Amino acid sequence: MRWSVPLLLISLGLLAGCAGEQSALSGGGQESDRTLLLTIILTAGSAVIFLLVIAAIAAAFFAPVRVKRWLASNNIVIWGGIAFPTVVLSALLVYGFLALGAGPASSATAAGDPLRIRVDGLQWWWRVTYLGDDGEAIESANELRLPAGRTVQLELTSSDVIHSFWVPAYAGKVDMIPGRTNTLTLVAEEPGIVRGQCTEYCGGAHAFMAFSVVTMDPADFDAWLAEEAGPANLTGTQGERAFLQAGCGGCHTVRGTSARGSVGPDLTHVASRRTIGAGLLPTDRDAILTWLKRHKSLKPDNLMPAYDMLSEQEQASIADWLGQLE
Predict the structure, then answer these.
(1) What is the three-class DSSP state of 281?
(2) Cα first-last separation, the chain
(3) Most Cβ neighbours (<10 Å): which of 71, 151, 229, 305?
(4) Residue 239, SS3?
(5) CA-based angle 298:199:215, to the nearest 5?
């Protein structure tokens, strides 16, 4: 009885990971559906084999002599110790290859021209660029938007160290290696919001390198992308002047202004994103102000300067302005 409460708490903690925006068991995409099925098959098969082994061990201790002799026979060693594992593991290997080969890569042709998105991992945020057939590149950051039901090709790379891109609801993780581009093809089946995470340790703020994935109706996505391509919708304000005078434009781009920096995230439509700080805070004016004041403590080791020289009024003006850039 003394172990019942701790075991119950541990079980509840494990079950808590089976749902939510970053669950590997939600099955929101074609690849994740197949991966989930393979996981269930492996788990169920492992449980059955485990129980058979436990039963054999129990029989070796407590069964009648006749059963013990049968367990010690050459037939059990040959069929149970050699033939059975060989057949089972070979079947699982073939099934695994078939499951991977029948994945989104084969559905890309049937789904028509895929949407191409380049995702660049940096310490500790994500540069997201939507690539058009006409060579147009529309840049965003820390959020991925997808059209439901359409094949998407993600071109994954890194500008500094090795990162790893993982959206468990849609697909398996893929490493992002400097100087190399890996491609992940996926189909998000229905509109919804899930969460992704860097799953390769990449330095001090690695745990705070997340992103949102927003899957939209295709028509809504097209409208959003057309708006995303445009300049900032509010210029000539006191907040913009404070932003530029503080030198923020040396690291950030805000299209429609003189800010052309590429070191940090593009902020042209930052207020339309779900979070700031790569999944750290929900986006609103107060959260932006909090980030300006406390980003070094909220996300240790992040590369943004402290900007302690900004007055309270300047910080508030910048937060007001950025909070309206939708």
Answers:
(1) strand
(2) 56
(3) 151
(4) helix
(5) 85
Full-prediction pTM beyond 0.90?
no
Give me the pLDDT at residue 103, please.
47
CA 35 to chain centre: 16
Strands (E), the chain: 115-122, 125-131, 137-141, 143-147, 151-158, 163-166, 174-176, 182-187, 192-198, 210-216, 275-276, 281-282
* Contact by Cβ (8 Å): 127, 119: yes
Identity of the residue numbered 32? S
pLDDT of residue 17: 56
DSSP state of 29: B
Instruction: State both tokens at 231.
Output: 């300049």
Spatial separation of the C-alpha atoms in residues 12 and 312, rounded to whole Å: 45
Ramachandran category for residue 276: left, alpha or beta (phi over 0 → left; psi -120 to 50 → alpha): beta
Integer Cα distance of 296 and 60 in angstroms: 62
Q: What are phi and psi of 291, to 5 degrees?
A: -60, -45
Among 280, 283, 291, 284, which residue's Cα sits nearest to residue 315? 291
Distance (Å, whole) CA 194 – CA 54:
40
Q: What is the largest CA-CA distance in the chain?
A: 92
What b/e string do you get for 171-190 counting C-beta neighbours within 10 Å, with b at 16 or more? bbbbbbbeeeeeebbbbbbe
At which residue do the structure tokens 């099934």 appear?
Answer: 95
Under-70 pLDDT residues of the chain: 1-28, 100-112
Quick one: pLDDT at residue 172? 84
Q: Apex CA 77: angle with CA 71 and CA 78, to 5°?
A: 135
**Which one-letter DSSP state was computed for residue 274?**
S
Tell me, what's the pLDDT at 107? 45
pLDDT of residue 164: 96
